């Protein structure tokens, strides 16, 4: 399957990669961390949750671009295109939160990788929030824009927590 183009699909695929990295780190940390297997499973679940959003985001945006009719129909199409990036922001924030946990408990030699995954996920959350805002440009006060921005802020905070755990 050829990867979808555009910022939304990229954010989804990179978030999925960050989750997979966390799963690998957790699996490599089972000796000193009893919860590592469960954390690896959680990371794999996040990977599986966000991966399909790459294609869904591309499809929703393509439909918005092709939307015909009046302002109402076009507006609905763009509002629909905002939903997949919001889900990406949610998943990316969850990955960043998990990265903080992994950075705190993982094998010390792999903690910097967990921090990296958290920072990457935070960037993806911010990118996805921007896509939500752009797709809902007429409705800047839309609850989805506020939620996406809050998720991006939470992801950034989690990434900083991961950095602090490494030090």
Which CATH class is shown?
Answer: Mainly Alpha
- What is the helix fraction of residues, given as a range? over 70%
Q: Compute the gyration radius: what is it? A: 17 Å
Number of strands: 0
CATH homologous superfamily (4th level) name:
Formiminotetrahydrofolate cyclodeaminase monomer, up-and-down helical bundle
Described by strand count, sense and barrel closure, the largest sheet is: none
Q: Please name the CATH architecture.
A: Up-down Bundle
Distance between the termini: 40 Å
Describe, in plain words, how this protein is organized in 3D.
α1 (7-27) runs antiparallel to α5 and α4 packs parallel to α6 (143-166). This protein is mostly helical and 167 residues long. 51% of the residues are buried. The protein has helices at residues 7-27, 36-50, 53-65, 71-105, 111-135, 143-166. The protein has a single domain (7-166), classed as Formiminotetrahydrofolate cyclodeaminase monomer, up-and-down helical bundle (Four Helix Bundle (Hemerythrin (Met), subunit A), Up-down Bundle).
């Amino acid at each position: 399957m050829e990867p979808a183009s555009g910022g939304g699909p990229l954010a989804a695929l990179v978030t999925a990669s960050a989750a997979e990295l966390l799963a690998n780190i957790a699996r490599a940390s089972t000796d000193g961390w009893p919860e590592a297997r469960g954390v690896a499973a959680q990371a794999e679940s996040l990977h599986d949750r966000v991966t399909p959003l790459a294609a869904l985001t591309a499809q929703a945006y393509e439909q918005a671009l092709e939307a015909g009719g009046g302002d109402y129909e076009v507006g609905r199409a763009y509002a629909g295109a905002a939903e997949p990036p919001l889900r990406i922001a949610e998943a990316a924030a969850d990955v960043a939160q998990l990265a903080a946990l992994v950075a705190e408990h993982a094998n010390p030699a792999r903690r910097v990788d967990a921090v990296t995954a958290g920072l990457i996920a935070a960037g993806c959350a911010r990118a996805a929030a921007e896509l939500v805002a752009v797709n809902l440009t007429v409705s800047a006060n839309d609850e989805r824009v506020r939620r996406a921005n809050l998720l991006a802020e939470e992801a950034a905070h989690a990434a900083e927590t991961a950095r602090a755990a490494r030090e």
